[in-house]
Design a protein that fits this description.
Order of helices and strands of chain A: EHHHHEEEEEEEHHHHHHHHHEEHHH
CATH class of one domain in chain B: Mainly Alpha
Chains: A alpha+beta (502), B mainly alpha (607), C alpha+beta (245)
Structural class of chain A: alpha+beta
Oligomer: heterotrimer
Strand order of the largest sheet of chain A: 3-4-7-6-5-8
CATH architecture of one domain in chain B: Up-down Bundle
Order of helices and strands of chain B: HHHHHHHHHHHHHHHHHHHHH
Largest interface: B-C, 109 and 93 residues
Number of domains of chain A: 3
Helix content of chain B: 55-70%
Radius of gyration of chain A: 28 Å
Helix content of chain A: 25-40%
Largest sheet of chain B: none
Chain lengths: 502, 607, 245
């Protein structure tokens, strides 16, 4: 089944202690001021721009297959670990509602009251299929359900506590990440707009600092690393002490948000050309202009459609598009593409691993690296500057917006998200993607995704050459600095305060 | 004891002629109620404004408490309207804004103006026997300078990035660099300008109070016959006059840093939010020194007048002279004097010279001494008195006992080593709420009940007053006492979500209990407002001296007309001659009441 | 319900123990005072309620000797509290600058430079066997939100901030010090027991103030060195693994 998705049950997440204490009119405030607003996923402007029929279809697809922040839906098509213990019925020979099972994983999560979901067999698919675990005997591997009506047969697949990790990830995300990255993962949370650089917008499916090749997605480990150690020089702090389970869960949730966002993006891109209001209006305007031009030249011309008529036509075309199952085709195609991409990123083949050891960090190696840095094969200096201060000539130019001939309003480089971007000042010793030589190797070999930092393939730089550049770059912070007007205060003060320390 | 006999001969006459008295002062609505130069009207304007501001500040506090009880869950009203798309949970910068503005409103728009502005204005001329303040127009201006401040503080909420969010102390660089916090943009500039307006307002008041108290006392009103209220207002005015310029200057320096690029408080080379590095060789600690040089004395500005008023009320409600009048005056003066050399105790761990910590510790601990003397004297005042357990007295008792707790908890943080641990924890929050709310605000509630008859000629409702007292007292203690525990458990201040620290997780239920209590306390304040406005129009009418008190204000009609007194009062006694043997069958002896020599001699012999 | 000092209530540093002792000393003094004054207040009120309307009150303007007593006694107690504290404070903040008895400068090992920034702690250690330099060195070891220190004896950290003011706070060790922009502040303390102690920011530093959750890991000197070696190896990992033969 292609669109196999399951709703994830709402978490039980109440603070009873508080509710008990609320005796003095507080309950009125809590419940009496109308319905609590629901957290919502925002849609892209391109989605909002579709004609109402198409927009409705997109929103319906997204809501059915991904749910809302309050009520998540798991789309099994995607390589996301939603959590839960999977198992197979070994035999159904006990009393009613009890059967022995073989579990795929650890049984630790199976507790009384956990929900059970049938994946295959006669119970699967139906609305009433959700069952509740009454008890689980870890020794005999017997599962007792609360209701005795289910009668599975051996070989039926099920999941217990499905979506548990996803729920946890959502809770962690809403507590720790949402204020900057936004509920949708669009980098536009309430605090996000005040930060420089702007928080990542996951909806392009791109993460900057990864261990994979330049066209690949990020791996779980990459995201895990970023969550754990943060990104120095930005507002992304280190969540080292978040807890192992929470970190894993939130990484999974972020991947899911990225998939959801990119699904929306790609799916809508399919529709934009034909069913976007602004495209329709634009084409009518153009047609109107040429019609008037022709009329002025006394040529034969067909009067273009009125705007409302054109929209009606588009709506009719969209209905046909749906009826011809082309919409479903587009959904399937997009989903397949994303599923494949995110699955592939986890395979070792796409991981960037040096084939040779780091070249010994000698002055000669650094010099070779410096020459490469200044060479026209790499052109590092054009952005990072001849002294590595991130002040290369490229930062003074006006650049085109990607895919258009319109220039950015601000001088300097921009990333794929349209935010101004400064090339890293390499003399600070601050490495956003990590300070291991391996990390720097990967930055050079695979580039930084979504930014003008390119990937230097094997044909441009051999592995030892990359290591030379790495050695050179890593030596930059410790070189004799050129005197500057402003001395770092820490150095000045440090001299005075060294005494007690020594 | 309702209306007592008028105590001066021509009082009867004056009562009847009371309305006729201000026949010459027919005033338009605007000049009588809005731009009034009458100290009584200005006092009432201050009082009502501050009471309303108290509700605003209280609302902000409840929002803060909500977040601490239910972190990252839907917050009604505020969260619903501003953060609806996020499910109503507020953002962390909104939380910092909430507590910053709670403190700002409560300190600058409630506590300071309600004491000096409302009661200072209303009581000073009445209690010293003057017909008005020395500079009535200046007085009017001091009220109307509050409003720009209110508008600036209010407008700061609507700036890009929300209200100021650097705490009421506004430590640079957080408050100074635009990039450091969303609220440090224009909102912070407006906040600083608002602060300046509040400062100017206070300064005009304090100049006025000093002049009035020195120059305009009635005949016979020697310095040591002044009620302690007047003494406290006098000392407060001096404190303010000397400390405030420092804050105003510091505020302008910060504004200059922000707008003109001077670098008084900015060290060089600091990079915040990837903005260009700062230039200039300033010092962030300088702000802390300047700020606390005002704001520590300001704590006493927020406390001394309440002390004075409570002394007045206690004596009256215990029908007994204040115990140790002069020691009370001297200890207030000592508090004011020492108050100038203790500011460093806010900065024990700020990185200033540690040797200074020692001197500041000694001076800080010694400032507890005059406070202790005052407490003992209050107890001495109650001792052996005939205590009237009415609402006023209840508030005064609450004042004394809450002040004892607040004062004693101060010793912990005055001790530098202990302060290393409890600095910037909830222990501090508990301490200053016990002093500012527990002491000052309870004193103010009592004073409202006590002087309301003089303000409006009607009594406030006793039963509602008592209910309000009980609810507020319980709510207050249940909210703030546990904060000591939070502080000892190491919960830092100003945390939007302390519970993701494992060692603080278990404090959530306690915080929820405190929030519930805070809501109880918040709701109870509507009783006060209701009582206040209801009694203004429908309370039982009262005579000149409903409490049987001695002060000059009680010889004037209720409410006093323009010019206050029917005749110029002449003062023969101190303000606290309750239960005096020479007073005959009454248990009080008004300051204007002349006792013939023979009677005095007889009483003395009898004594 | 554990509403007292964090953890098991004990301080895990020598200084912390002294702070706790002082705290309890003040607590006793304060409790006695509180009970005494409250009892006096309560008794006075109780007696005051009992006096009948026609009864004469105690007409008194005060008592000189009482005033003298309750000036001198509290001031003696307060002075005692003040002077008794001085030594602990000196030990925490000043004696590190003083010389040893024989005139040699006091030596407290500087283990790390702790840099607070919005909203995390970045920590820099010197490589094993080297002293901490004020400027970064190529072989320095870095960690984030995890400060490792050796136990046994005083250690010192250099506290600084990258941006706004922060405060270094380790509740279990009772250590707190503001990190002031433009300053480098030495902070010394000891951890008496190996273990993990929570470390946080105690001075409002912006909207993410509460996010600065970190851990102070106290280990024996050997473990500390071993950890540094391990961290160093990890930090200089070039990712190259010999292919399995």
């Amino acid at each position: 089944m292609f669109r196999e998705n399951f709703p994830i049950s709402m978490p039980r997440f109440t603070r009873t202690g508080f509710n008990v204490l609320v005796t003095f009119g507080l309950a009125v405030i809590n419940s009496g001021c109308g319905e609590a607003p629901q957290a919502k996923f925002k849609y892209r402007p391109t989605t909002e721009d579709l004609i109402p029929e198409a927009n409705k279809a997109v929103v319906k697809t997204l809501t059915e297959d991904f749910g809302t922040p309050e009520k998540l839906v798991a789309w099994e098509r995607f390589p996301v670990d939603y959590g839960g213990v999977k198992g197979t019925v070994a035999a159904n020979d006990g009393p009613a509602g009890a059967f022995s099972v073989t579990l795929d994983g650890d049984a630790g999560k199976i507790a009384k009251g956990a929900s059970l979901l049938w994946v295959t067999g006669s119970q699967a698919g139906g609305k009433s299929a959700e069952a509740t675990v009454k008890s689980f005997n870890a020794v005999t591997k017997t599962l007792q359900l609360a209701s005795a009506s289910t009668a599975p047969v051996a070989g039926d697949r099920f999941i217990v506590a499905f979506g548990e990790d996803m729920q946890l990830g959502r809770v962690v995300y809403m507590k720790n990440c949402m204020h900057c990255h936004g509920v949708t993962g669009d980098g536009d949370g309430p605090t996000g707009k005040f930060l420089n650089p702007r928080p990542r917008d996951y909806r392009n499916g791109k993460f900057k600092f990864t261990s994979t090749q330049s066209q690949e997605k990020a791996t779980r480990d990459d995201l895990h690393r970023i969550v754990q150690y943060g990104i120095p020089g930005t507002y992304m702090p280190s969540f080292l002490l978040l807890g192992k389970r929470e970190t894993t869960a939130v990484v999974e949730y972020v991947r899911w948000l990225a998939i959801r966002g990119e699904f929306e993006k790609r799916f809508v891109e399919e529709l934009t050309n034909d069913y976007s209001e602004s495209v329709i209006v634009d084409s009518i305007k153009k047609a109107q202009a040429s019609y008037e031009e022709k009329k002025r030249n006394k040529e034969e011309a067909e009067k273009p459609l009125s705007e409302s008529k054109a929209k009606k036509e588009a709506a009719a075309a969209f209905k046909k598009y749906v009826d011809d199952k082309e919409l479903d085709g587009a959904i399937e195609e997009t989903a397949n593409l994303l599923a494949a991409a995110w699955t592939q990123s986890e395979t070792p083949e796409v991981s960037v691993v040096p084939t040779s050891q780091r070249v010994e960090d000698t002055p000669e190696s650094r010099e070779r690296g410096r020459l490469l840095y200044m060479s026209n094969t790499t052109k590092c200096y054009t952005c990072h500057g001849p002294t590595g201060r991130g002040d290369g000539a490229a930062t003074e130019d006006f650049w085109d917006k990607p895919g258009t001939s319109v220039k950015f309003e601000k001088r300097g480089l921009h990333d794929e998200w349209g935010n101004p971007l400064k090339p890293r000042n390499l003399t600070l010793g601050q490495y956003r993607g990590g300070r291991r030589p391996l990390d720097l190797f990967r930055r050079i070999r695979a580039g930084i995704k979504g930014t003008p930092m390119p990937a230097f393939g094997e044909t441009v730089l051999k592995d030892p050459q990359v290591w030379d550049v790495v050695n050179y770059v890593m030596s930059l912070p410790y070189q004799q600095k050129q005197p500057t007007a402003v001395k770092h205060p820490a150095e000045v003060v440090a001299k005075n305060e060294e005494k007690p320390a020594n | 004891m309702s209306t007592l006999n008028p105590t001066i001969d021509h009082a009867d006459h004056a009562d009847h002629g009371g309305h006729g008295h201000d026949h010459a002062h027919k005033q338009s609505f605007i000049s009588q109620y809005v731009f009034s130069t009458d100290h009584k009207m200005i006092g009432k304007q201050f009082l009502i404004t501050t009471l309303l501001m108290m509700m605003v500040g209280g609302g902000l506090a409840l929002a803060v408490r909500w977040q601490l009880a239910r972190p990252w869950e839907r917050m009604p009203i505020f969260g619903d309207t501003v953060f609806g798309a996020d499910g109503g949970q507020i953002s962390p910068d909104a939380y910092t804004m909430l507590f910053t503005m709670h403190a700002t409103v409560m300190i600058f728009l409630v506590i300071i103006p309600v004491l000096a502005g409302a009661f200072g204005n209303f009581l000073i001329p009445l209690q010293i026997g003057a017909d008005d303040m020395a500079f009535p127009t200046l007085n009017m201006l001091s009220y109307w300078f509050m409003w720009p401040a209110i508008f600036l503080f209010g407008a700061s909420f609507f700036m890009y990035g929300g209200g100021p969010a650097a705490g009421w102390t506004s430590y640079p660089l957080l408050s100074l660099l635009r990039e450091a916090a969303p609220g440090s943009g224009d909102a912070q500039t407006l906040w600083l300008l608002g602060l300046t307006f509040v400062g100017v307002s206070s300064m005009m008041g304090s100049v006025n109070y000093m002049t009035t108290i020195i120059n305009m006392r009635a005949p016979g009103m020697t310095l040591f016959r002044m009620p302690l209220t007047i003494w406290s207002m006098f000392i407060t005015a001096i404190l303010q006059a000397f400390a405030l310029p420092v804050l105003t200057a510091a505020g302008f320096m910060m504004v200059a840093d922000r707008l003109l690029g001077t670098c008084f408080f900015v060290p060089s080379g600091i990079v915040v939010n990837n903005a260009p590095p700062t230039v200039g060789g300033g010092q962030t600690l300088l702000w802390q020194h300047l700020f606390w040089f005002y704001s520590h004395p300001a704590v006493y500005i927020m406390l001394l007048p309440a002390m004075g008023m409570v002394s007045d009320m206690l004596a009256c409600m215990c029908r007994k002279p204040v115990f140790g009048y002069k020691p009370m005056v001297y200890s207030m003066a000592a508090i004011a004097g020492l108050g100038f050399i203790v500011w460093g105790h806010h900065m024990f761990i700020s990185g200033m010279n540690p040797a200074l910590g020692m001197t500041f510790m000694v001076s800080t601990i010694m400032i507890a001494l005059p406070s202790a003397i005052k407490t003992f004297n209050w107890i001495g005042t109650i001792w052996g008195g005939r205590v009237q357990f009415n609402t006023v007295m209840l508030y005064c008792i609450a004042f004394v006992s809450m002040f004892i707790i607040g004062g004693l908890s101060g010793i912990f943080m005055a001790a530098v080593p202990v302060d290393i641990y409890i600095h910037d924890t909830y222990f501090i929050v508990a301490h200053f709420h016990y002093v500012i709310f527990g002491a000052t605000l309870f004193g103010v509630f009592g004073a409202i009940q006590f002087w309301f008859p003089k303000m409006y000629g009607r009594m406030m409702n006793e039963t509602v007053g008592k209910i309000h007292f009980v609810l507020t007292f319980i709510g207050f203690n249940c909210t703030f006492y546990p904060m000591h525990m939070l502080g000892i458990a190491g919960m830092p201040r100003r945390y939007a979500d302390p519970y993701h620290f494992p060692y603080l997780e278990h404090l959530l239920p306690l915080n929820q209990f405190m929030t519930a209590s805070a809501f109880l306390m918040g709701m109870a304040q509507f009783l006060l407002l209701g009582n206040f406005f209801y009694s203004m129009y429908f309370g039982p009418k009262c005579g000149r001296n409903p409490w049987g008190a001695n002060g000059l204000e009680w010889t004037a009609p209720s409410p006093p007309g323009h010019g206050n007194f029917d005749v110029l009062p002449i003062v023969y006694h101190g303000p606290y001659e309750y239960g005096s043997p020479v007073s005959g069958d009454k248990d009080f002896l008004m300051q204007t009441e002349y006792v013939p020599l023979a009677q005095r001699v007889a009483a003395e012999e009898h004594h | 319900m554990h509403w007292w000092f964090p953890g098991d209530g004990n301080a895990y540093s020598t200084l912390g123990g002294k702070i706790d002792d002082l705290f309890y000393l003040i607590l006793v003094i304060v409790s006695v005072t509180f009970v005494g004054t409250s009892a006096a207040l309560g008794y006075a009120l109780w007696r005051g309620a009992a006096i009948k309307a026609d009864e004469k009150v105690w007409f008194s303007h005060g008592s000189h000797s009482l005033e003298v007593i309750w000036t001198i006694v509290p001031s003696a107690v307060l002075l005692f509290i003040a002077l008794y504290q001085l030594d602990v404070w000196a030990e925490y903040r000043m004696k590190g600058f003083a010389k040893e008895k024989d005139g040699s400068p006091k030596i407290i090992t500087v283990v790390a430079e702790v840099t607070a920034r919005q909203f995390e702690w970045r920590i820099r250690y010197p490589a094993n066997g080297k002293p901490l330099k004020p400027t970064p060195q190529p072989d320095d070891i870095y960690s984030v939100n995890e400060l490792h220190v050796p136990t046994g004896g005083l250690v010192s950290i250099t506290l600084r901030t990258d941006d706004v003011q922060h405060a270094f706070f380790v509740p279990m060790l009772r250590v707190k010090q503001d990190a002031v922009p433009g300053k480098m502040i030495p902070v010394w303390f000891d951890a008496t027991m190996p273990g993990n102690y929570e470390m946080l920011c105690a001075e409002l530093c912006g909207w993410g103030h509460y996010k600065m959750k970190a851990m102070l890991v106290a280990q024996s000197a050997d473990d500390f060195e071993a950890w540094k070696d391990k961290a160093s190896a990890e930090q200089f990992d070039d990712g190259y693994r010999k292919p399995a033969e």
